[in-house]
Amino acid sequence: MDLKRIVKRLLPPLITDAARSLSTNDACTEPPEYEYVPNGWDNHDSRITGWNVESVLETQKAKWPEFLRLVRGAQPLGIAHEACTPETTDYSAHNTLMAFAYVLALTARKKDRVSLLDWGGGIGHYYVIGKALLPAVEINYHCKDVPAMVRGGRELLPEAVFYDDDNDCFNRTYDLVMASSSLQYCRDWRKAVRRLASVSDSYLYITRLPLVCEAPSFVVVQRPHRYGYETEYLSWFLRRDEFLNYMNDLGTELIREFLIHEKSVVHGAPEQGEYRGFLFRPQVDYLKNE
Description:
By secondary structure, the chain is of the alpha/beta class.
């Protein structure tokens, strides 16, 4: 047996996957999908144009009919809507959506109607998923995102409410406030999560959040070209205890933590991270008095 086969058998899959990804990136001219940015948010690369670009909207709209088809029926909800080809057998996506199912069901307990703010919710995928999960519950769905995504969401889901300004979506409170794979893209994440907690009447759900345990919080550039997105954007990998300590300082109570099975190998990072979800019960009176 050669050395490569021995190493593959002895090392955990995460390490071998990371090594394979890094070696592949080094061997080609295409830059890595995730890369550590030493100067953090003070980056003036003209290629970093953010999320508010037409290619993101057009790519998601093109997959929308297939997404709707897959959600209908009794097949597994293993649907990663950002995958190049959506399917129903993505175990990672299934885990993420079943965690959302638990959170939504808990929020809707003994209620016929729930209000949901999906902060960074794109064109409204979670609204469709929510209706499939709890068909007997009316979901008063509100979504905040960048102007391009809001334009698409209003076209595809006219019954929902979309905002392209934080001040508008924070003018009221909601039974459930959710930020799924969105908080890390906010430069001032503390201000953002404080405002999110302040408008939750019952629960705040922060999920698909990349965390590290040893290194200080750091910034990466993400290049999502393989998904059809012709852009790049910056993102936090937050130190776990820094995030949870701040949530504790806000007076929120941690109800449940969730394992999120996503892997993002960050080229040059001081530490490779993992993704988690957290369900909090905010103390709104505490937040208002601060």
